[in-house]
Amino acid sequence: MSDVQRRGGPADHAIEVVGLVKRFKKVEAVRGISFAVPRGSATALLGGNGAGKTSTLSMLLGLLLPTAGTITILGDDIAHHRYRVLPRMNFTSPYVDLPKSLTVAENLKVFARLYGVPRIRVRIAELVDQLDIGDFLNRPYGTLSAGQRTRVSIAKALLNEPEVLLLDEPTASLDPDVGDRVRAQLMDYRHRSGATLLLASHNMPEVERMCDAVLMMRAGRIVDTGSPADLIARYGRRTMEEVFLDVARGAEAAAAPGASPEPRE
User: Fold this and answer.
1) How far apart are CA 158 and CA 168, in angstroms?
2) pLDDT in tens, 5-43
3) What is the DSSP string of 202-246?
4) In which band, very low, low, confident or very high, does the pLDDT at 265 lie, cut at 50, 70 and 90?
């Protein structure tokens, strides 16, 4: 059982996954994974392309039905009580577009109404200021750059002040300065609200900065877990990027208790 799973009992967990499986015809994308994410924590779900991260996030959101296993979020089984949970969650992904013909302001107003956000103008104004999207607020979403779309997607995800926030590549396409500010905003939101963050990212410095714990996936399975510092020490590496490469290449066995992997030069 991982460090993520050991902290407290079920009441302390925002997300609990047990025996989760997802098959697409002959392909088993997720192979019986189990994990729990403590309330108020920030956890990274890492793995190379095809590891099963996106399928896992999609099942957590209820966009995909599991082949087997259970998902409990904020105390409710989403298979039976999805609509109790969804208003308390949100997500962002650079791979999911908002309506392109609507302006940024129109998109945020539409989603704010869908989420039942009170004082919509005030909430949008707060996010416009925090994420610095005022310069293109009245432009159609479809005319924005990839980085601008990412910032709008994050604003959309924060509209309802979610208790659980799922983040797929949250700073993709952002330049270093804007990416740094967005990370700071997400960390500030977490600390102010007590929200739980689960993020999939290929940006390892981002993971080291933002996350308490890491779930390492490969070929549909969770193959290692721990805090960024613990994983770096266990693998005898200097950064999470080096740990990521070890796991992606199937080298996690070298980090078994008692093993002494050779540090990279």
Assistant:
1) 14
2) 444 455 689 999 999 999 999 899 999 999 999 999 999
3) S-HHHHHHH-SEEEEEETTEEEEEE-HHHHHHHHT-SSHHHHHHH
4) very low
Q: Over the stretch 49-80, which tens digit does the pLDDT of each residue have? A: 889 999 999 999 989 999 999 999 999 999 89
- Asked if residue 63 lies in contact with residue 139, where contact means CB atoms within 8 angstroms, the answer is no
CA angle centred on 248, ends 236 and 230, rounded to 5°: 35
Residue 140 in this model has a pLDDT that exceeds 80: yes
Tokens of 180: 């740094």
Q: How far is CA 208 from the centre of its chain?
A: 14
Express as a percent the part of the chain with pLDDT over 70.
Answer: 90
Give me Rg for the CA atoms of the chain: 19
What pLDDT band is residue 252 in, cutting at 50, 70 and 90? low
Within 8 A by CB and 6+ apart from 150, the residues are 92, 94, 170, 171, 172, 173, 174, 182
Distance of CA 250 to the CA centre of its chain: 23
